[in-house]
Design a protein that fits this description.
5-stranded antiparallel beta sheet, 11 helices, 11 strands, 287 residues
């Protein structure tokens, strides 16, 4: 079976991958040594392509579209979606590829609303950016007990560059006590210096090296910006009876050698009482 046959079979088995198939077919034909993916945040439309782009093909789907075009000798696949998209670039020169991707990224409109925050939801197979409607902290702080409100209020007002030795936050409480509302408010309060990533399968994240590398180690290294990774309802990671290697890896990411140099914070939530949580986490790591 030829490479073209393999790509065709892949396309038939994955109807929503037609645009990627068209790009990969041309990538193979051109024998380009580079194929680069760039995630784009904001409302991605075909207007993100420079005016000088030469359109090759367009694939329209129900809620998104793929545009294949050539820009300065670089072949580009622009995945357009209202909540964020991506750009693949195939080329022979790394500087040219980077220059074209940078230009496309700069043309994506990002205009966050006062009560809205863009959050990345990720699992082992997919990543999606979503604009969440959020109630700011001053509107909900009265819903919490004075002690909890004071602690969270101090956290909400924190701005940039956390203590290098304090990267883990643990929030515990019974269902319905307001953990999710507080998380949303925190993401809004920190959006000027931190990007929120909600991991929907934390056990898989800490058990799959490729997945972990994609989310944490291969993240765009933007100057002065941090990642806030939210691991909700992570009972299996925290519980004394089930937590093990995954929690050890998380602690290493937070304050061990692996975490040094990474601008990553971890917010873990659980419905379990502190008495059920492993000791290294129960003692707490806070900003």
């Amino acid at each position: 079976m030829t490479t073209h046959d393999l790509l065709s079979h892949f396309c038939l088995e994955n109807a929503y991958e037609v645009g990627r198939f068209l790009l990969l077919r041309e990538h193979v034909r051109r024998a380009d040594p580079l194929l680069v993916l760039r995630d784009l945040r904001g409302a991605v439309t075909p207007a993100a392509l420079p005016e000088r782009a030469r359109l090759v093909s367009t694939v329209r789907q129900e809620a998104s579209s793929d545009v294949v075009a050539e820009v300065d000798g670089v072949l580009v696949l622009l995945h357009c979606y209202k909540a964020g998209g991506s750009a693949w670039a195939s080329g022979a020169d790394e500087q040219a590829v980077t220059r074209v991707l940078d230009e496309i990224g700069a043309r994506v409109v990002r205009a966050p609303l006062p009560r809205q925050v863009e959050v990345t939801f990720t699992d082992q197979w997919n990543t999606r950016n979503v604009d969440l409607d959020v109630r700011p902290w001053p509107e909900i702080e009265h819903l919490y007990t004075p002690a909890v409100s004071a602690t969270l209020g101090s956290l909400m007002s924190h701005v940039g560059s956390p203590d290098e030795a304090r990267r883990l936050l643990l929030w515990h409480g019974a269902p319905g006590t307001g953990k999710t509302s507080a998380i949303r408010a925190l993401l809004l309060a920190w959006r000027e210096w931190a990007d929120g990533i909600v991991v929907t399968d934390p056990e898989a994240l800490l058990g799959d090296g490729r997945y972990l590398r994609r989310v944490v180690l291969d993240a765009d290294d933007e100057e002065d910006r941090w990642l806030l990774l939210v691991l909700e309802d992570a009972e299996s990671l925290l519980h004394k009876g089930t937590g093990g290697k995954g929690m050890a890896k998380l602690l290493n990411l937070g304050d061990g050698l692996l975490g040094q140099g990474l601008r990553c914070l971890f917010l873990i939530t659980t419905n379990e009482p502190l008495t059920a949580v492993q000791e290294p986490v129960a003692v707490g790591q806070y900003l």
